[in-house]
Amino acid sequence: MNSTGEQGDGVRGMFSLDSTVPETASRGFAAFRREWEAQFGGRFRMPAFSPATTGDFRVKSRGTKMSDVAIIALHGVSAVQAAGYSHCVEDLVRMHVVRRGALTLGEIHDRGERTVSAGQFLLRPFKLAPRYEIARHTTVKFLFLPSAMLAPLLRDRIITGPTDSAEMRLLLAHTNMVQATVSDLGPAGVRIARDTVIELVKAVALRRFDDVEPLLAPALAQAAKDLADTCLTEPDLSMTMLARELAVSVRTLQRAFAATGESVTAYIRRRRLEEARLALTAPSGSLGISELAARWQFADSSHFIRTFKKQYGLTPTDYARSTGPGAHRRDA
């Protein structure tokens, strides 16, 4: 369990909990409730979880608060059920993003249900906290957002869609970065991170974003990296392909990467070399140099060997040998 926060001004709060292992499962819910109340304060009410949930609360969770924005990333090994509050006005905009499994969302007084499946999101204003059920082995991200800034745009609409749209790729890349780095941000950085969340949620609602907005450049660069990491073995992976998938111009993507100190092409080459290096020393690995070169889209074995040596100071064969006993034999 890790937690930290700025309790003085309430601007920032964060926690990270894992109750999926046997030694922590028995006190998992109590720890979750304690951290939620300490880090999120009175602005965000914790759901009223069912007795079945509190008795078997095996989840990995990470919470981040930035003033009037909160993000909860949760992976539940056990099922999670929460009842809404019929007596307490919430007046928040919520986004539910399901990466794996399924979440069933119900209105107060059973005014209909909606299931959000893997690879989908749901965005809408809520005057009252909804009830919901999360199936076992579900990975979901909750965003709690200020109604004043988003409700006029949404006009009580329910907006749904896939998580692989350009706008959602940017939003997810940004929220992942925020949850990984918020403890290192100063007050100005927290404000910028919070404002970027709002702008990207607006972009999701409008199904477009301002690709020249400097505020969004870090999210765009990270979204491109995340997408590239899933396509490293594909021959058509390129700056042009990434720009097309993210609905921006090549020039815009180049500008976003410029601030990172690494070009798109250099990032792709570095990541392919990293994966090839890991494959060289994998216990079950059996690919030779020529096969590795082909898999990671190098022109030929000679090009792969030269590039690898420039990066790591050894040829692939020498690198594999240097890892110690049990290294697999490689072709030259």
Automatic annotation (TrEMBL):
Keywords from the UniProt entry: DNA-binding, Transcription, Transcription regulation
UniProt entry tagged with the keyword Chaperone: no
Keyword Transcription found: yes
Cross-referenced Pfam families: HTH_18
Record-annotated HTH araC/xylS-type domain positions: 222-322
InterPro entries registered for this protein in UniProt: AraC_XylS_family_regulators, Homeodomain-like_sf, HTH_AraC, HTH_AraC-typ_CS, Tscrpt_reg_AraC-type_HTH
MF (Gene Ontology): DNA-binding transcription factor activity; sequence-specific DNA binding
Protein name: Helix-turn-helix domain-containing protein
Species per Swiss-Prot/TrEMBL record: Umezawaea endophytica
